[in-house]
Amino acid sequence: MEFFTNQNIIFYLLAYLIGSIPFGLILAKTFAGVDIKSQGSKSIGATNVLRVVKEKDPKLAKKLGIATVILDALKGTILLIIGLYLNLSYETLWAMAVLSVLGHCYSIYLGLEGGKGVATGLGVYIVLIPYATLIGAIVWIVCAKVLKISSLSSLLGLIAAVISATFIYDGLNVGSNVPMYLIAFIILYKHIPNIIRIVKGEEKKVI
User: Which parts of the chain are coiled coil (predicted)?
Assistant: First the structure.
């Protein structure tokens, strides 16, 4: 029973379980009556919420898309802020960050399926590497405005954040950049189909 009363273990479990909550799926079903897991890219992220709900109600689609981004980011952010308040070690915080992103990408509630991890990754990065994340967010927003390709903009923002963090931070308070790279790898891995479509010039724009 000590396993389940250990503070770190409790936070690891919470990080994964909260990260697994499919807010995009819940919002689309509740407010638009659509199942995004069976339409569009079948992802639970904001882009698919926007794309699928837009066919039914463009104004609602935008609101739900924004709400999905915020909630997916917060499920990575809030628990880390609590952890900081409780003076958890940075090793524990980074492990929680990785588990939050894994939860979103491989949700226990969806048979280990999920989203691409961008918003949740943003949520954990903003707490642990804030300056680099702001740089990445600016790159993401600018690229989204210019390119209008969500996946490519997200990946460019991610790369900008990781490269910036490599120069700004020294070991991420844990003596290694590995946790940050691991989160980036998970997100990149989930985007492999998008990357293939980008290379082929087949990736759809979000208009």
Answer: none
Structure tokens at 55: 């066919």
Round to whole Å and give the CA distance between 75 and 20: 9
Taking the model in full, what pTM does it have?
0.88
Q: In the structure encoding, which two tokens stand for residue 118, read together?
A: 């961008």
Q: Which two tokens stand for residue 138?
A: 């600016």
Which residue has tokens 């799926």?
A: 25
- Radius of gyration of the chain from its Cα atoms, rounded to whole angstroms: 17
> CA–CA separation, 12 vs 17, rounded Å?
9
What are the structural domain ranges in the chain?
A: 2-200
| Interatomic CA distance for residues 24 and 64, integer angstroms | 8
Cα-to-chain-centroid distance, residue 51: 18
**% pLDDT > 70, the chain:** 97
